[in-house]
Every structure is written in C-alpha cells, then in structure tokens.
Amino acid sequence: MKIDFKRFLKGGQKFLIISISTIILIGVFPFLEPAQKAEADLTKICEETPEGLIFFQENSLLGVSEPNNPEPKVVKKIRVMVTAYSSTPSETDDTPFITAAGTTVRDGIVANNKYPFGTKIRIPELYGDKIFVVEDRMHPTKSYYCVDIWFSSHKEAENFGAKITYIEILES
After folding, report:
1. What is the count of structural domains for the chain?
2. In 87-102, which positions are buried (b, 16+ CB within 10 angstroms) versus exposed (e)?
C-alpha cells in the first residue's frame, strides 16, 4: 500500500512538519558538530601533549614533573655490602616464599636489619633508578650495613656474589 503524502498532508500540515524537521536538524546538528570537533581536537591535543602535562577541568593544562611517578627524594646515602639470596630452604626459614613482612617474595624485594619494612632504596651503581623495598630480614648476625637482594633462582643469587657499593634511602 502506497501513501500519497501530497494528498495526505494539506498545506498547513506540510509547513508544520517541514518547519519542525528543519528546527530539529538545525537545532541538533550544531550541537553535534562542536561536540565531534571538540572530541577530535582533544584527541589531537592528547597526541601532541608532551609528558609532564595533564588535563585539568577538561579545558586547561596543568604542568607537573611526572604525574604518575614523581621523582623520589634521597634522604640518605650509605655504603653497604650487597649480597643475594633466593627462596631455597638453606637460605631462608621454613616459609621460603614469604617475607618477614608477610608478603610473597618478588622482584625488587630486599632484606635488611636496619630499616623498617616498606623502606624504599635504590642501588644506583648496580641497578640505576630501580627501586627496591625492604620487606625481609637477614640473619641476626648480619650487620645493619648489609642488604640482601632476592633472586628467583639459587644460581642467579650465587652468580651475583657480594659487592660493596652505595645505597640511597628514599623518602617515604
């Protein structure tokens, strides 16, 4: 069944429908176009924005040094002997995969008897900017000036040996 719109719509009705359609089209498209343009501009800005800038209130840029990882401040630098250990029963207690802090061993864990759990350190001469966390303890006979780095295998720990170097204690 085909509808003859010319006959169906009489003069005033045609004008009303065309006017409403025009208003809707004119009213909606200007809002859509700027929104699409703004989204495209934002994407372009994000691609071109150098590191160290973040968006603030959707339309302003705020400069920051490193928003996700600010540079830690070195509180103290001390000379220590750095050794290595792994989760073998001969090097640990009866829970070789649990640290003295109660966490599971993982890369970046160190043992030390001087500093509290959670203390962050760097060993710049050996590992650059890598940050280690004190979460384990050494045998009580070890000096406060010894740091033991955890390795996943006994062979890696053995190959590391012992080194005298500086550590940096970082601000918490």
Report:
1. 2
2. beeeebeeeeebbbee
Q: Which residues of 62-78 are buried (b: 16+ CB within 10 A; e: fewer)?
A: eeeeeeeeeebeeeeee
Domain assignment present for 22? yes
The more confidently predicted of residues 33 and 81 is: 81
Q: Which pTM value belongs to this model?
A: 0.59
- Digit-coded pLDDT (tens) for 98-146: 899 999 999 999 999 999 999 999 999 999 999 999 999 998 888 889 9
What is the phi/psi pair of residue 28, to 5°? -85, -45
Q: Residue 143: CA atoms inside 13 Å, Cβ hemisphere, count?
A: 7
Range of the domain at 23: 12-63
Name the token pair of 138: 């050494």
Which two tokens mark 73? 């401040």
Q: Are residues 93 and 160 in the same domain?
A: yes
Integer CA distances (angstroms), 36 to 26, 31, 59, 131, 148, in order: 16, 9, 15, 43, 56
Position 57 in a domain: yes
**Residue 94 to residues 104, 137, 156, Cα–Cα distance (Å):** 14, 14, 21
